[in-house]
């Protein structure tokens, strides 16, 4: 526990703004060479840290601007003393300011932080230095941390203190009328500049100062506030000046200007009124004032009503669920990226992301004329509470960046000299979630780490040749049809054919072999008709195909439109639109395709997308890689909750752990009355979830858990029943618990992708399959057998009626390496020990069963469902010998599933068919599942009703969802039509 507490307090997730926004070089320089001071490190340590930059020959901008010492300017002692005194006073005032009012991680010791955690944090601070920071001192931040924001509270305190002093000076003259040459000078400046509005200046200065001191980390928000206030001040001065009759210094004297809108009022009001009359000027400046206030309060126009309700609730103390009043305001604790913008929203779907398309729907398409890549919100620097992972039955919850001193839970690192991973904390009572106190700064990887692809071609000579060939075929066979156009995708082009008045559509479909012959391609796919169009589509592979790079997909507006951490870049559709999907909305996906079709590449893109967009405290992963080669590159990333699992047996056990984790989450949801983990997290973040009386538990948000299995067949070979049962249980319930499965297989046969798995994994992605039968297993329809490999896929997200053809996004190994290097350099993984512990515990229970668990489960299921306790039936159905069947029967008897032997008669079956799940759970030794799911488990309701879209409630793939919009692939997917 103490180690857990010592781990981390909060992470500042910073999304770099890309090269175009500048500062990139400075940032990366500092990442590699300039360990920045952690919060709390004194100026001295900052100065000491700076020389470490010496390798590059110049210090990063942030360090240079922040630390005079780094500029090498020798200061005399009086200057240093004055500066030290000023900063000391400023920091004392700043600290006092932060100590007043609600606290949140990042601006001081969190509530409840104990000495141990503080001490632990200091240990961590001392240990954590970035790679390459050979000279880094204790107390320096991990490399890459807030270069521009080194000790933001120190700087902000200095500025804030100055503003406070200024406010006092202005108030002394403007409010209390202190006379004298100094006072007159102040009045001349204040009233001369702002006119009568200068009276409000002290209030404004105090407000800005307090804000800077209380939220030093919100550099960006402070910038926004400054812009908004500028609008307000200028507009108010202009309005006052108009109201006072537009005095001018030349005609009416400077005193008249001072008594009106000041120089600002004069400069902004006079030209507008002269040019456009005051009937235009007054509404203009009223609007500008209003606009400025919206900027200051970060209120989009459509959120004004919700904000007003929020203000009302705050004033009246009214706690309205889902209303703005309870939501974090500008001055409330910062909310993690992806969960912002929830103020004032009524709950509909997943709270906190209402209005976010990727959350509202499982799949969505952006219109073709959607703005291009590079637009949309760019996640900014922010501080977020670190990912404390809740535990199961006392499961230790540990988060990234923890530093311990024991060997347990060590993170295997492929890099020589990589920092030693921390020890896992001691187990805690069920549901306990240790808080992470202190500051850890985490930067999301820069987008520029992912390369840009070539611009998309809308037409090429190859397309013209195909049009000629198609026309030739129609002429040759006397079919009245013509090519009316085409849309070129990266891999295939869809040619649109319109048939003549009396021509049967079948005439075209029957020509498919001739068309394939004419265009010299075996992979011709005919859509008759193209959904939503009176035209036939003929998809023909491009002889000059293009690679879709992941970087472009993630930079597209479709991806930027949402900040959801589980949004991934899928690729491009057949019209060249970018496709992104929200894994949380899938909520589980089956990825299948023949060897070499592109599954692993897809999984790489998926994991890289998550690494690019999500902090370890937002998303944690369990990676299962029985092939042992595909995912090893991710070993040691802080998003991992357990080392990459390569043994199929262990993988089956890990799935079992996921079930337990899900159960633990559900217990919390039930206990605190929330239906979805997002609701729970939002409530935790605003302090609405309080530990039960007498409990010392510290409640923290749950991260999403992404479980990736890169070869389901290997798991199904070792423990089919167990794996199937775990998958079934996870997929049925896990959505509301924030747990999502990605199952990949190159053997989409019915023994691997069983009916049970299919029924519960609603989203499917089929790469080229080797047979039509495989396509049917994956998609419930043919089509995948005609795909051309190398990332060409049919994507059928949950709720979609028809699959969309996409070319999967491609990310090179070197890009992945860069991203992985970036995340690993910042935090070390902290593994959940209970994954292994649960497995060990189970082994003991199963000792007398030995390797027969799976057979025993099948036997129990057979006997209970048929209510017929016959050994020879077991022999027949399970294809086992007499001795084995007899042994199974004995085991079943020992577990009171069947009665004792009655000679040649069948044994009594003691368990009713309805109680089968409990009986199977008993055999597995899983006591947490000993309840009747259908009747007693409060969790069932939660799952289905989290947002009303549990897998069972949804139309499955192939099923037709109501309101199906052709362009709206069920909601998990966005397609952006800006073609690049
Ligand atoms: N999206 C893509 N864009 C371009 N090329 C791709 C894409 N996906 C896969 N490829 C090409 O296909 C090759 C095989 O892909 P990948 O390894 O992902 O297949 P796989 O289905 O995982 O095969 P296996 O099951 O054997 O691991 C890659 O090495 C690459 O050359």
From TrEMBL:
<dbReference type="InterPro" id="IPR002543">
    <property type="entry name" value="FtsK_dom"/>
</dbReference>
<feature type="compositionally biased region" description="Pro residues">
    <location>
        <begin position="419"/>
        <end position="428"/>
    </location>
</feature>
<protein>
    <submittedName>
        <fullName>DNA translocase FtsK</fullName>
    </submittedName>
</protein>
<dbReference type="InterPro" id="IPR027417">
    <property type="entry name" value="P-loop_NTPase"/>
</dbReference>
<dbReference type="InterPro" id="IPR050206">
    <property type="entry name" value="FtsK/SpoIIIE/SftA"/>
</dbReference>
<keyword id="KW-0238">DNA-binding</keyword>
<keyword id="KW-0472">Membrane</keyword>
<feature type="compositionally biased region" description="Basic and acidic residues">
    <location>
        <begin position="115"/>
        <end position="128"/>
    </location>
</feature>
<feature type="compositionally biased region" description="Low complexity">
    <location>
        <begin position="134"/>
        <end position="150"/>
    </location>
</feature>
<feature type="transmembrane region" description="Helical">
    <location>
        <begin position="188"/>
        <end position="210"/>
    </location>
</feature>
<feature type="transmembrane region" description="Helical">
    <location>
        <begin position="280"/>
        <end position="298"/>
    </location>
</feature>
<feature type="compositionally biased region" description="Low complexity">
    <location>
        <begin position="38"/>
        <end position="54"/>
    </location>
</feature>
<feature type="domain" description="FtsK">
    <location>
        <begin position="576"/>
        <end position="776"/>
    </location>
</feature>
<keyword id="KW-1133">Transmembrane helix</keyword>
<comment type="similarity">
    <text>Belongs to the FtsK/SpoIIIE/SftA family.</text>
</comment>
<dbReference type="InterPro" id="IPR036390">
    <property type="entry name" value="WH_DNA-bd_sf"/>
</dbReference>
<feature type="compositionally biased region" description="Low complexity">
    <location>
        <begin position="408"/>
        <end position="418"/>
    </location>
</feature>
<dbReference type="Pfam" id="PF01580">
    <property type="entry name" value="FtsK_SpoIIIE"/>
</dbReference>
<comment type="function">
    <text>Essential cell division protein that coordinates cell division and chromosome segregation. The N-terminus is involved in assembly of the cell-division machinery. The C-terminus functions as a DNA motor that moves dsDNA in an ATP-dependent manner towards the dif recombination site, which is located within the replication terminus region. Required for activation of the Xer recombinase, allowing activation of chromosome unlinking by recombination.</text>
</comment>
<dbReference type="InterPro" id="IPR036388">
    <property type="entry name" value="WH-like_DNA-bd_sf"/>
</dbReference>
<feature type="region of interest" description="Disordered">
    <location>
        <begin position="97"/>
        <end position="150"/>
    </location>
</feature>
<feature type="region of interest" description="Disordered">
    <location>
        <begin position="319"/>
        <end position="352"/>
    </location>
</feature>
<feature type="compositionally biased region" description="Low complexity">
    <location>
        <begin position="364"/>
        <end position="380"/>
    </location>
</feature>
<feature type="transmembrane region" description="Helical">
    <location>
        <begin position="222"/>
        <end position="242"/>
    </location>
</feature>
<feature type="transmembrane region" description="Helical">
    <location>
        <begin position="254"/>
        <end position="273"/>
    </location>
</feature>
<feature type="region of interest" description="Disordered">
    <location>
        <begin position="14"/>
        <end position="75"/>
    </location>
</feature>
<dbReference type="InterPro" id="IPR041027">
    <property type="entry name" value="FtsK_alpha"/>
</dbReference>
<dbReference type="Pfam" id="PF17854">
    <property type="entry name" value="FtsK_alpha"/>
</dbReference>
<keyword id="KW-0812">Transmembrane</keyword>
<feature type="binding site">
    <location>
        <begin position="593"/>
        <end position="600"/>
    </location>
    <ligand>
        <name>ATP</name>
    </ligand>
</feature>
<dbReference type="InterPro" id="IPR018541">
    <property type="entry name" value="Ftsk_gamma"/>
</dbReference>
<feature type="region of interest" description="Disordered">
    <location>
        <begin position="364"/>
        <end position="437"/>
    </location>
</feature>
<feature type="transmembrane region" description="Helical">
    <location>
        <begin position="159"/>
        <end position="176"/>
    </location>
</feature>
<keyword id="KW-0067">ATP-binding</keyword>
<dbReference type="Pfam" id="PF09397">
    <property type="entry name" value="FtsK_gamma"/>
</dbReference>
<feature type="region of interest" description="Disordered">
    <location>
        <begin position="927"/>
        <end position="980"/>
    </location>
</feature>
<keyword id="KW-0547">Nucleotide-binding</keyword>
